[in-house]
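REVIEWER CHECKLIST
Item 1: Sequence provided? yes
Item 2: Single chain? yes
Item 3: Sequence as submitted:
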Amino acid sequence: MSTPLIAISELRYADSLASYLKSQRIDVSIKNAPDEAQYIVLLNDESKYEQALEICQAFVDAPNDPKYQQAAWQHSDRTDVPVTSTERGDSVKRWLIALRRAPFTGLILILCTLIFAASLLGLFQPVAALLMIMPLDTLMQNHQWWRLLGPALIHFSVLHFVFNLLWWGMLGSQVERQLGSSFLLILFVVTALVSNLAQLLTAGPNFGGLSGVVYGLVGFVWIAGWLRPKWGLYLPKAIVGFMLVWLVLGYADVLWVNMANAAHTAGLLAGCVIAWLLTLGAGKSAD
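Item 4: Structure as written out by the authors:
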C-alpha cells in the first residue's frame, strides 16, 4: 500500500520532487486529486519513509534548487500521472484555476482563439484588415500603432494555431507565475515588437503568428533558467535543441510551410537579451 508523502499544487514541482526521489532510489508515484487541484506524491516503499520525508522537508524549503530541476530533466519520463475519467470531467475546473494563476497568459490564449475562430467563420479578411502590420511610412501617416503587435494574434492554419498556443500556454504561464503578469505583459510587447519589425523590414508585411513571441519566451526561459535557476524557470535541453533545429530548418527552406525566419530569430535574441539584462540587474541588487 502506498503512503502519501506530500501534496503539491503544481505538477512540475510534484514531478521535480518525484524525479529527485527516484534518483535517490526511492520508489514513488504521483496521484492527481482533482477535487483539490493538487498532486500527491506517494511512497511505494515503506522502509524508506524517514529518508523520503527528510527529502520532502528539504524540498519545501528550497523547491527551486537546481538539483531538483536536474533530476526532472533526467528522470521525469519515469513519472506517470494516470488520467482517469474523473480527471477528464474536471478539466474545465483545472483550466479555470490555471487561468486565475496566469491571467495574462489566458487573455492572449482567448484573444488568439477568438480571432482564429472568426477566421474559420469566413471573417479572415476583416480581421486581417484590422490587425495586419503595414509599412512604417504608412504607419507614420495613419498612426495605427497597434498593428505593430497585431500580427502576433493572427494564425493561418490549425497547425500554426495549435503549435504556437501550446508553447505560449506552457512558457507564458511559467513566466507569469514566477515573475508576475506585469512582467509577462512587458515581455510579450517587447518580443512582439522586435520580431514583427524584423520580419516587416526583411520580408514585408504579409505574415502573422505568435511564434516570434514564443521564441522570445524560449530565449528568456532558457537564459534565465541557466543564469538564475532559483527563479524556478526551466526548459529541458531537448526542447531548446528542438526549437533551435526548427529555426535552422526554417532558414534551410526544407519545411512544408513558409517560416517567418526573421521574426523567430529576432524574438529569440530579444528574449535572451532581456533575460541577461534582468539577471544582471538582479545580481547587482543582490550585491
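Item 5: Key structural point noted by reviewer: The chain has two domains: 3-92, 102-286.
Item 6: Recommendation: ____
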